[in-house]
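re: ur question from earlier - yeah i can do the single chain one, its not a big deal. heres the input i used so u can compare w yours
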Amino acid sequence: MEKLNKSFASDNWSGVCPEIMEALQQANVGHVEAYGEANDFYTQKATAKFKIHFGNAVSPFFVYNGTAANVLGISHLLRSYQAIVSAKSAHLNEDECGAPEKFGSSKILEIETEDGKISPGEVEPFLHSIGFQHHVQPRVISISEVTEKGTVYTPEEVKILAGFAHSHNLLLHMDGARISNAAVALNVPFRDFTTDAGVDVLSFGGTKNGLMFGEAVVFFDKNLAGDFEYLRKQGMQLHSKMRFISAQFDRYLTGDLWKKNAETANRMARLLEKSLRPFSQLKITRSVDANGVFVIIPPEIIPKIQGHYFFHVWDENTSEVRLMCSWDTTEEDIDGFTQVLKNVLRD
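and the output i got, formated as tokens:
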């Protein structure tokens, strides 16, 4: 079978890192109580790891995927007449196929942003609807860390937004699909921009950084977490063989595996950016905060490059593409991509 080049399409395209695969093999022995019940020691260990990283007050619940983590985590906080405020570019808004509206019955109030980040001033206009019975009532502000435009909220930015939310009886949700890449970019522990910054519920991602499958919904207040297990079951996200999600998170949060994987992805993105800058035909469009590089490439050569290293076009109108690096991206991959680019431009 012909060996294919790695892609720069998404960190979802990469495989499972060896340490996680080994953890799955080790968990695949004997019988363990199903559904993450009390005698499932894998789930107990994974839960303990979350408490180490985020504090003893947190309540983590494991689900299959990021869409479920986002939709169920937020839906648990909302009544049907309440709304979510998010960036227009947010995965929750653009890439969940309407799941928040269908399963959560909640309207999304979107904010157009240049860099993917939203601020209190941009949320404030929606507050005029509060108390007016003809309008949906804003209840949750949802932010992405890392954003869909590759930027990262600082702990202070999260803290300011959380303070604003709480002062207006709103809650703050964080989509942390790439939270490990954000922590590495900020060079701070997870809790600095979650627990200590005032986040109320977090979708903690691992699949983009080396896991086979599995995400976690993390509540920072046990009162908010009440009865979530029933919504998880009703939402078809209660894994019967829960140990195979939990074992991954237990290993992922042990010995800084999460950090090692994210450091590689972020470092490769910076190297890729450096490799692309000498090409006068290209234009880097956004700061490389984490593991994504956004660049404008002449549209006529995009298909030729994609034939060797696939990637997605982010904006068809401007020919801006997104190049994502993963835990398994190597310097050889960057060199190979750069060489293909040179060859295509020379033809």
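The mean pLDDT is 96. not sure if urs matches, ping me
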